[in-house]
Fold Ig-like domain-containing protein.
Amino acid sequence: MRVAQLLLWCVLLEDYGGNLGRAAITSDSVRQDASSSSATNPTLPDAPSFSEPIGNVTAAIGKEAILSCTIRKLGNYKVGWLRVEDQTILSMGKRTVTHSSRFLVTVEEAKKAKNQTRSREDEEATWRLHIRQLREADRGCYMCQINAQPMLSQLGCVDVLVPPDILSNGTSEGEVSVTEGENATLSCKASGRPPPRVVWRREKSDFILMRGLHESWLQVDSQSGEKLELTRVDRRQMGAYLCIARNEVPPTVSKRVYLQVNFAPSAKVRNQLLGSPLDTDVSLICSIEAYPKTINLWTRKEQVIMSGGRYEIDERSYPEEEWKTTIELKIKRLQKTDLGEYTCSASSSMGKTEATIRVYEIERATVPTRATSPSWRKQNRGGKSKSVYGTTVNRVFHQLSTPAMQKSTSRLIFSNRYYSTSSTTVDPRGPLIVKEKNAFSESKEESKVLNVAGIASILFTKQICTICLTFSLTLR
């Protein structure tokens, strides 16, 4: 550092001597100037001085930084700039000596006030060092020097702001793969000046799913820090995560890290039994959850079913839940030969799973009918019977489960009237077919029963009257 300062001082001194028209500067004169300067303070009225400190400058990388050195009473003295860190001389007077075109020196003379005359020695001048297209290597301190005796100098420092950058070293790869139930750590290392703040977010969701106390799930908008810790990973946490780094310098940068959660496949069907009339379209739906993706097939009697003819296979995936897949088998115009068991299978490197559906035939429903006979009309007009009527009903009930039926019959007898009712309780899981019944035959049988009951009642009454009359005569 001392060598650079002396070198700059010597160069400036030579330039100063040339401007005065001297042939050379003798060692005696230099010695005399040094002795006189050492005896007196450089802040004497006839010596140059700095009007104000240079100060520190902060600028973003790629921008321009300007250091200003304001000098009073410079006279015929010269000003030079050098970089303190590596002792590189940048300029001597208005001339730049560095090979880099990014450095430039400009001089601005101070404006005189109106009605005021000032000598050249009393004027102020500002010497500016321009550093264009700033680089990180330009960060540091710079010295402004005056070739006075003794040499005058002051420092000004430049701070270069750097936008955030995500480093490859210490950052997770584009994909992180774990097995469901294991712990996962997503890392993101960022640099910049000032140091950037790192935040994690989900790419296609408004929240990050985190485990809380007692195995409860918490939904958080974001998570701060260079590492995102996920404990006992669940398939619902699978997806893309964004590492976002920002500081005071634009632009903000991010990196995408995809979390893969591997687990064995599982298959489910809505109903294990599916009933439908013949000559109708039937859809068999199977829901599969697995990662990595599975090979999905529909089979029957160990034969793979392919799309074509009366069969159509449709496979759907869900972007928001990438581990879910639905495969649907459509059978057009169901026939007798299509009845039976179908198997939905899914296989991957994590395992294999199956689910079955049995297709069976159900009868079509018929339109209800009602019949009335002339004899019923006569009985109704005569008022002899009010509870007997004839109907013919044929109903069909079906449900997509195991067919079953429970049946109960009850008979009620009130006074001398006889009613016969039949009630059927239908199991909701099975079909029920009620065959036709002839109400007129039941009506005739009921009429006979009523006649016999009436005759027996009359005979019993007569016997009671005879017994009572005989008993009363005996007492008299």
